[in-house]
Amino acid sequence: MASPLNNTTTSDQEMADLERHDCVERVQWVLNTPKPPGLSQELIGTAVSWRNKVPFLNMQSGLKNELFSMLKATFPILSWCQNYKPNHFKHDLLAGLTLASLCIPQSIGYANLAKLDPQYGLYTSVVPPLIYTLMGTSREIAIGPVAVISLLLSSMVQKLEDPMANPIAYHKLVLTVTFFAGTFQAAFGLFRSGFLIDFLSHAALVGFMAGAAIVIGLQQLKGLLGITHFTNKTDVISVLKVVWSSFQHPWNPYNFLLGCSFLIFILITRFLARKNKKLFWLPAIAPLVSVVLATLIVFLTKADKHGVNIVKHIKGGLNPSSVDQLQFNGPHVGELAKIGLIVAIIALTEAIAVGRSFAVIKGYHLDGNKEMVAMGFMNIIGSFTSCYVATGSFSRTAVNFSAGCETAMSNIVMAVTVFISLELLTKLLYYTPVAILASIILSALPGLIDVNEACNIWKVDKLDFLACIGAFVGVLFATVEIGLLVAVTISFAKIIVVSIRPGTETLGKLPETDAFGDVNQYPMAVKTPGVLIMRLKSALLCFANANFVRERIMKWVIEEEKDSKLRNAEKTIQIVILDISNLMDIDTSGIASLEELHENFDSNGMKLAIANPRWQVIHKLKLANFVPKIGGRVFLSIGEAMASFSI
Amino acid sequence: MASPLNNTTTSDQEMADLERHDCVERVQWVLNTPKPPGLSQELIGTAVSWRNKVPFLNMQSGLKNELFSMLKATFPILSWCQNYKPNHFKHDLLAGLTLASLCIPQSIGYANLAKLDPQYGLYTSVVPPLIYTLMGTSREIAIGPVAVISLLLSSMVQKLEDPMANPIAYHKLVLTVTFFAGTFQAAFGLFRSGFLIDFLSHAALVGFMAGAAIVIGLQQLKGLLGITHFTNKTDVISVLKVVWSSFQHPWNPYNFLLGCSFLIFILITRFLARKNKKLFWLPAIAPLVSVVLATLIVFLTKADKHGVNIVKHIKGGLNPSSVDQLQFNGPHVGELAKIGLIVAIIALTEAIAVGRSFAVIKGYHLDGNKEMVAMGFMNIIGSFTSCYVATGSFSRTAVNFSAGCETAMSNIVMAVTVFISLELLTKLLYYTPVAILASIILSALPGLIDVNEACNIWKVDKLDFLACIGAFVGVLFATVEIGLLVAVTISFAKIIVVSIRPGTETLGKLPETDAFGDVNQYPMAVKTPGVLIMRLKSALLCFANANFVRERIMKWVIEEEKDSKLRNAEKTIQIVILDISNLMDIDTSGIASLEELHENFDSNGMKLAIANPRWQVIHKLKLANFVPKIGGRVFLSIGEAMASFSI
Asked: Does B26 contact A513 at a Cβ distance shorter than 8 Å?
């Protein structure tokens, strides 16, 4: 009888030995990893691997082929032009004409918002769309001046030069900013550093856009109420003060009446179009119709003699060259470059967001870096031809899409139409009332305020919502720049808080599996008596949280021990397994705190084991000689750690 | 024959069904977790749970007991005093006297560095150590003025008031800064916000201390060379310019000779002590011996008549009250509070670092928050009694420890000794040469420069080393504040870069286990054909990296597919499992990028599955309605995901 029993024991023993041997071998896997790439190497590697995707550097054999493929990569129009059919052009022509009818009044209004003469808005709707058509990859995007960029430009540049007192000097500064913005955009694209435009989080953008829309709306009160002495500040309080004080003086109601009635007209057309999708062209041409009607009314009633402000002279003709107006040696160059950078990022963020959303609908991929290069060149060349910063417009792109555009050709149609108007029709706009431009801008603003998305952000993440509200309040009550700064700061502070928050969670074994889970997340998880399995809630164990985490773990262990004593559990805690699988990195303070933990546990008769370290982390622990200090108790997984203690 | 086979099949089928049923149930575990606490709740919870540990708020029954335990918690001296034995006092007396002999010359020297009259240094060695003894928990720390804080104070306060032109006004500002620093320190302790002192990473501190030591050393050239017109700036270049221009003029070599010879004397005593541990007292009393000898030499040779600068009059007597000198309404209050905050943090960082390192040696726990309260009150009361900011000194604490101190009583002995000297001996210091003070300060500086630790940091983490060097270079070539700012910025930038670096790793199954590991970290890991298992290298998927990560994964999948086609593998990739176990958080941009990935895969006939989401992440994915979009393919682990696809 003894023999089989003995046998079994031996066999069990052998099995256990074998198991242990395997376990030891697997511990060696953890400890003897190859040297990981350094963080700097990795980041440089990322940059290089993206660099290699730059079309110009991707030479293939055959000089002619090569040249043509280079040209094709730089000018995507060469690709899609080959398959361009008359049927496409029919659609693009219709879309382009619709676009132009919306674009002409908007361009004049936005130029007004940018504190430039009206023709500069029209110029900006001619050259940049043409350049973009040659180089861009989006098929729907409508290029030209937009409200937010116009506001940004005027609010920042007028701190350097007063647009009323020195319109020519102010215009030179705006052109220089345009040049810088284009250069930055092209550089971002060429160096594949498109991630820079990601620095403005979605939540921050929603708040910023809504704030900017309200600020732009308030600026329109100038035109709508015919106020002559308006403020240069953009915050709500300054603007409302001016509006309030203007009510004290006698004021002319005609401007307001004219603006409001046409605003209501445009809003009604939009309402109709929403009811019946086929009427999409109605709100698109409503602004032009309003301009024509209002101009006629003023012309016929001579209302300009009765206090209605009119646009007056618009300089006609093609964009004049402005190369000699760029200012690279003056006291403001640094400041202009800074403004250029901010404008470049906001313009790209807006354009790529709008481009992507329509590309997804039509199911094609938008190359962010190519877009940036295209936008950059269109603004650089724009700055040579009297344009200010152009980008993709939310509202006009939607109209372009609804009008059934097929390719970027619709932008060409639009540019040509605007060009013809510049040549022939500017004289007709002499009597256009300023109030009508204000109402056209106002009618485009609701699209910038996305209350639904803000609610959604609130639902998903409270801290993101804080960034959103921060940007909104900052833009509204301080300046546009402060709003941006607040949003970026909150967004990055959130990253820091989330990655170093000093928390731990207790893990338990999930029944019928080998997996371990947070006992709060998975209430069915079972703790093993005598063992405490913990996981850090932070992604880094570093100077900023190492002490806190150490004290947290100590406190937790002490409480768990008290608890198990109270429950008269058979076993008090003997082993603490620390799962560090989610630690991305550890620094000297973090290693020191682990060492201190180990010493504390050791003096209390407990053992510390480390499970599942990542590559970088185990490498650093080895460098700091931590592994021998804790008796080599580093394991591949929690399960392996448990097995090694024969639990 | 058919029957058993059939049976087996049925049984297999049943088993598989059962298995699948289990798997489905476990998917429900993942999806039906309780609602996780919000980040804000969690952070507030952390604060509250720490608040509860404040002794004053932890009332127990019994008013008398309660009061006494409150008193004991506030004044730890009441606890250790009860067990204080004569034998302890013998050790403390010896240590205290040794400490005093080092402290008196250092205090005068540091007061000089802080651009205050010598007696203020001595005052600072009387009151703060006494208060600390009542409230502090460290047994070894030696309290008093220290070099770095003296430098910080003088370099920042002299921008507001010239210490040469208006010594009284300057002194008032220093007192006010001391008050602010104390208030901040006490507040940090009371509100358990000790994590604030962790904001200066270990690496940054090493660099900062080394830079400050060199700057302090350069400042000593004034005393050592007897330069009368020194610069107020602290950067290397300004100081070396002044020194260079002073060489152009005729100069007096006596100061230099005197200072250097005694510096060499002190360094020799230190060298002897390092050779023979029993001679630890030799470098401790060497400064006092130097002062006595040098003073005697000057007195006997009348060297002060030959150009040797001497200390001259030191005001004797006990600390005068300075309550009425604090300035809370002046133009500088905001600036003074800012300086107070910086000084408070640096002082605490130094004191707690030195206190902890000795507490670890003696094996007791140092309560960081209690320490901060003690330091805070000692500086507040110090500011009422003509002291400037005191903290724990690196060099003197080491001497105190070597001299065998048992409790904080040695600080009392030291304070009493300094007090007696103030009453009786200040007249004897009239002829003390300034150069000797410079050499005493210089001799204490090498302890602040830790080249070994810098090498260690370089070895373990290159980015940490960058923070270290940034602080060093900033302090050396710009100002102390800029050095600190650079260090803090680099440290936090590192946290951001590590937690959002846009990388992915491919996982494979580790042989003989159920675990999956990075194929680069574990070269033995085996990939399953037809399945691509990926894990993010970042801790957050958010606005800043979502696009990048999405493009990375797409590129990787395309490459893997090409690769498997090249290898003529049986299966192309059909399933992409994304292990997101290390994602601490996700925001709307992150979710959008996952959705886009899913759509891309879907249109290429691949399936995306998510494995092992954390609590917060799955909660947000559910809120954003992501789970049904990917067909509910969210699993507990990679293994479960594989099982569900029957691989």
From this structure: yes
